Every structure is written in structure tokens, then in C-alpha cells.
Amino acid sequence: MEVQERSAISGNQVLTVSTGWANATGIGATTNTYTPSSAVAGTTYYRVLVNAANNGCDQTVSNNGIAVINPDLVVTTQPSNVNECIGGTNTMTVVSGGSGAISYQWQSSADGSTGWANATGLGATTNTYTPSSAVAGTTYYRVLVNAANNGCDQAVSNNGIAVINPDLVVTTQPTNVSECIGGTNTMTVAITGGSGVVSYQWQSSADGSTGWANATGLGATTNTYTPSSATAGTTYYRVLVNAANNGCDQAVSNNGIAIINPDLVVTTQPSDVNECIGGTNTMTVAITGGSGAISYQWQSSADGSTGLGKCNRNWCNNKYIHTIKCSSRNNILQSVSECSQQWM
Asked: Are residues 224 and 155 in the same domain?
């Protein structure tokens, strides 16, 4: 409220005239103790005029008193939800108004409606609280806000929810792969726990203990990876699993072993047999390469060129494993390890 004053000299007296002042109403407005109105927020100046009834008693005017009326407490920023792993340190924060010293008390509840109890821990009596993340589970939180000055009602925040997740665990480990060059077998992991976006990075090592490096290729950043089968040899693989939210520790899988074998090769060819009826001479082959159970199927033909069917393409890397061509000896046809198109 604007106060205007002016002074004038009348004889030997200085008269002070103020404008804008009006007689107050309400409790105690005509006594020595007055209760200023607090119906509306704002700032108002008060003074009291004191007069004595008998003759010659001059009026006295008090100094100004200032009444500052603040709005009631309102939580303007509500607590946000927390989603993290065991050991996380995310916080909930509120912002409020009020007059005088502001106090806070965070409370917790298992269901968000009953059983509220004062919380403890870091920031439990401030406007920023760190919910406990020692145990996996869901807990509801709110904060009671009080202002010290007269007439300030308590404010209660909305609920904030803290979801604490178990740490990441690899529950399905990568299986070993044994295949030929060009194979496409995969390694897969499954996980539980974690919070937020989960990421994967497969790694490879020549010995399974040192020299780990990030792998590349199909699925190298997913939970299912296709190890390279371009070259024969043994390689060890593992996967690093991370969850994006606070407190989530990295999980590392067990090793999976990829054994890439050379393709099948007949290293010893069948020898010719020349005998009488009832003879029991044999033909034998030896092979190298291949992966898994090895199967054999002998075939016969009257002339070495017909009745054998087409080459079988169903073994390693779509290569032919049973083929026909003429030998250079007496025009006798025999089986060799690569397909000759002239006899197809």
C-alpha cells in the first residue's frame, strides 16, 4: 500500500499529513492488540493512532508494522518415479512455497495408500530424498511439508514410486558351436534383472582368458550371435550385458567355444578289387575334416557313369562329396572327391 506524507509549518508547529491510510477493521482494531487480516496473500502496513480523552493530550502515532501474508504451502514440483537396480542412487525432489522455516518428512508405504511411515536415510528430512535400493521391490514415497509460521497448513506431495530391480544375471549361457567352414550355428544368452535398455556386446579370444576384443558380424550386439566360420580353428566367445539405469552392474557370460572344422576331404581313395565269385576283398576310404557324426553310403554302377544320380550337395558349404570321372587306367570309372561335370 502506498504511503504519502507531506509537511507544513503553522506557527511554531510542524504538521505532518499522511494520505492513503484508512481505519482498519477486524479483531482488536480499536484496542492495543490487533490481528491483521490474513485472508489474502500480500503485504500491508499498519500503525495505530493513540488518543487520550482529557484536554491538552496530543495524539500519538506508532511506527509502522508490516504484515506479510504468504500463500499456503503448495508442492509445485512433485516427486518423480525411480527405476533402478540394487545399489542405485537416484533421487526424488520436491519444490514448495510457504513462510518461515520449511521442514520436510518423507514417508514410505508398500501400496501407496496405507501403512505410511516416516522414511529414513539420505535426505529423509530435506526436499531431495534418496530411496533405499538395498532390496529389490516396489515402494511408494511421499513427503509432508510444513512451514513454521502461523496459519501455514501442511502440504502433502503426490506419490513417487521407486522400483528397485535385481542386478543383471545371465540365466542361459552360450552353447558351444562345432561346424564346418561356412556353418551358421549361433550362440544365444538369456538374462534376468536389470533396469532400462539392455545392451549386448560379444567378444572373442584365442585362448578364452586373455586378448578379449569386441566381436563383429551378425548379432554381435544382440543376445544371439553367429560366430565367424570363414576359417578353420577354435575361438572362444563371451558376451557383456549392460542395463542403462542407475546401479545396474555389468553381467559377463560364461565362455562359449566355436570349433570350425575344415570341409570333408577323402584322403584315401577306394582301391580296385579283382577276385573270383565268393571273394571278400574290400574297398576302404579315409577322410579328414567334417564336423559331427560321419556317415557313409556306397553306390554301384554297371558302367561307372550312369545309375549314380547327381552329385550330393548336402554336406559342408554346398560342396560335392560324391563325384564321378574316368580314371586313366583301363577306362575303369571310380569315385573321387570332386564333381566332374562331364559325367553329370
From this structure: no
| pLDDT per position as a tens digit, 185-232 | 999 999 999 999 999 999 999 999 999 999 999 999 999 999 999 999
For residues 175 and 246, membership in a common domain is answered with: yes
- The angle subtended at Cα 325 by Cα 319 and Cα 329, nearest 5°, is 140
Asked if residue 130 and residue 106 are part of one domain, the reply reads yes
Same domain? 137 vs 175 = no
Listed in sequence order, the residues at least 6 apart from 241 whose beta carbon sits closer than 8 Å to its beta carbon are 168, 170, 189, 191, 194, 198, 199, 200, 250, 251, 252, 253
Domain that holds residue 79: 75-165
Instruction: Look up the CATH number of the domain holding residue 137.
Output: 2.60.40.10
Per residue in 67-105, pLDDT (tens digit) is 988 888 889 999 999 999 999 999 999 998 777 789 999
Distance CA 222, CA 144 (A): 45
Q: In the numeric block, which cell numbers belong to residue 170?
A: 545371465
Q: What type of residue is 264?
A: L
- Dihedral sign computed on CA atoms, order 137, 140, 144, 145: positive
Query: DSSP H helical segments within the chain, as ranges?
Result: none
Dist CA 308 CA 320 (whole Å): 14
How many other CB atoms sit within 10 Å of the CB of residue 66?
A: 9
Query: Do residues 248 and 195 lie in contact, with contact meaning Cβ atoms separated by under 8 Å?
Result: yes
Nearest-angstrom CA–CA distance, 324 and 308: 9
Q: What is the pLDDT of residues 97-146, one digit of tens each?
A: 777 789 999 999 999 999 999 999 999 999 999 999 999 999 999 999 99
